[in-house]
Write a structure and sequence with these properties.
single chain; 473 residues; alpha/beta; Alpha-D-Glucose-1,6-Bisphosphate, Chain A, domain 3; TATA-Binding Protein; 3 domains; 6-stranded mixed sheet; 34% helix; globular
């Protein structure tokens, strides 16, 4: 049986939240430019200006540039936002100015950039995307030569360079780098993803709705499913620079759910703008979240002798029902902070190969270095094909504990620390006792404070969230 962690009453984590429930929680450190998933903000406003992007390119390039005669490469991908052109050109200028040879791969999923960085022996990977945010935002995600997102420590070193001048990093005139676009990056990623699907299985006879959110996977995801045998109904595949995540994708899964019902599909999958997360709907159009998908994969891999490390890595948002399900299987749960790179770090530290978030960020480290919505969907489909179950039978793996989430819009995240808010949290914790969890945390990507409670009494947790939200308002 897994080792249970001691209960911690009234414990406040490093991101100003309260957590109850018995699993280990990992903290995070703050950074000025970098949030939970790279640098992000409204396009053409700091920090997402061309000027800052150029400096980020210089700082990141200088960090990974060594004084050797070998070529120093950087791979740049992006999603389909209008501002991607501006940010890409600025990053290219910054990178070549410190001597980097830049490879531009165009619109591709975030996990493709991680994969290509490693497979092409690049020193640095850059993904230009604000993930599930609207087109008005953009972001910069950085990968090291191993294909993994950068650690807090490396990001801090890059920020130090940003704030302390970059003139000494500029290349001599004869050492300035070049930039080129390659045409086969999309095909490389398609073949890589297909190779993760069991070779003895096919998707023949399955009708699948594939919602690409008008984002980075609009060309590759339907092609992967088609080449593996599925009858594909693609939606969200007409990006125009403005419509990424607009009414489609994993943040608006109702479009995919409706398409499943309309076309009588066997299931549907909805990716987000950079395709590092996925949500699935069964044949009735009922939505399945990331916790259920992880439970399905973890159990399948456990039975197949493939699950490593004796644990699954979740986050502070992972449903208590999932934790109980893992307990029954003899698998431990470790809760990292919200953000897939924190999940990945715990996976690497503990030798674990399954981790993720309810939002659909699922990391399967046997295959990839970051969340990959398409690979997670294929592993789910493999279980359905192997067992012969329909999606409704297979995908409701455990009874979820009722959970309420309230987003309080505020730019003043220090409001968490006021006496009124702390008193409301402590009172709610006393009311709930050991029957559930309370979590209050600032969003790492939006001007929000998220208030979450879960427990077996839905009316109680709803009231708890409303009281804490009122104290924050």
């Amino acid at each position: 049986m897994p080792r249970r962690m001691p209960e911690r009453k009234g414990w406040v984590t490093a991101i100003a939240c309260v957590f109850r429930g018995g699993a280990l929680t990992i903290g995070a450190m703050s950074r000025r430019y970098f949030g939970t998933d790279g640098i992000r903000g409204p396009a053409n406003s700091e920090p997402m200006t061309a000027e800052t992007a150029l400096k980020v390119g210089q700082a990141a390039g200088a960090h990974f540039f060594t004084q050797s005669d070998r070529p120093h490469r950087a791979v740049i991908g992006k999603d389909t936002r209008l501002s991607g052109y501006m940010i890409e050109n600025a990053l290219v200028s910054g990178l070549v100015s410190v001597g980097m040879q830049v490879i531009q791969v165009g619109p591709l999923p975030t996990p493709a950039v991680g994969m290509l960085t490693r497979s092409m022996r690049a020193d640095l990977g850059v993904m230009i995307s604000a993930s599930h945010n609207p087109y008005t935002d953009n972001g910069i995600k950085l990968f090291g030569p191993d294909g993994f997102k950068l650690s807090d420590e490396v990001e801090a070193e890059i920020e130090h360079r940003l704030e302390n001048g970059l003139s000494d990093a500029l290349a001599a005139p004869d050492k300035i780098g070049r930039a080129k676009r390659i045409e086969d990056a999309r095909g490389r990623y398609i073949e890589f993803v297909k190779a993760t699907f069991p070779k003895d299985l096919r998707l023949d006879g399955l009708k699948v709705v594939c919602d690409c959110a008008h984002g980075a996977a609009y060309a590759v995801a339907p092609e992967v499913l088609y080449e593996l045998g599925a009858d594909v109904i693609p939606i969200g595949i007409k990006p125009d620079g403005y419509n990424i995540n607009a009414g489609v994708g994993s943040t608006h899964p109702e479009a995919m759910c409706n398409a499943v019902r309309e076309h009588g599909a066997d299931l549907g999958l909805a990716l987000d703008g950079d395709a590092d997360r996925v949500l699935i709907a069964d044949q009735t159009g009922t939505l399945i979240d990331g916790d259920q998908l992880m439970a399905l994969i973890a159990r399948d891999w456990l039975l197949g002798g493939r699950l490593t490390g004796g644990h699954v890595i979740g986050t502070l948002m992972t449903n208590l029902g999932f934790q109980r399900f893992l307990d029954d299987l003899g698998i431990g749960l470790v809760r990292a902070n919200v953000g897939d790179r924190y999940v990945v770090q715990e996976m690497r530290d503990r030798g674990v190969n399954v981790g993720g978030e309810p939002s659909g960020h699922i990391i399967l480290s046997d295959y990839t270095t970051t969340g990959d919505g398409l690979i997670a969907a294929l592993q789910t489909l493999a279980v359905l094909v192997r067992t012969g179950q329909n999606a409704a039978e297979a995908l409701t793996v455990f009874p979820a504990v009722p959970q309420t989430l309230v987003n309080v819009k505020t730019a003043n995240k220090a409001a968490l620390h006021t006496d009124a808010v702390q008193s409301a949290i402590q009172a709610a914790e006393t009311d709930l006792g050991t029957a559930g969890r309370i979590l209050v945390r600032p969003s790492g990507t939006e001007p929000l404070i998220r208030v979450m409670a879960e427990g077996d009494d839905p009316s109680q947790i709803k009231a708890i969230c409303e009281r804490i939200a009122a104290a924050l308002s």
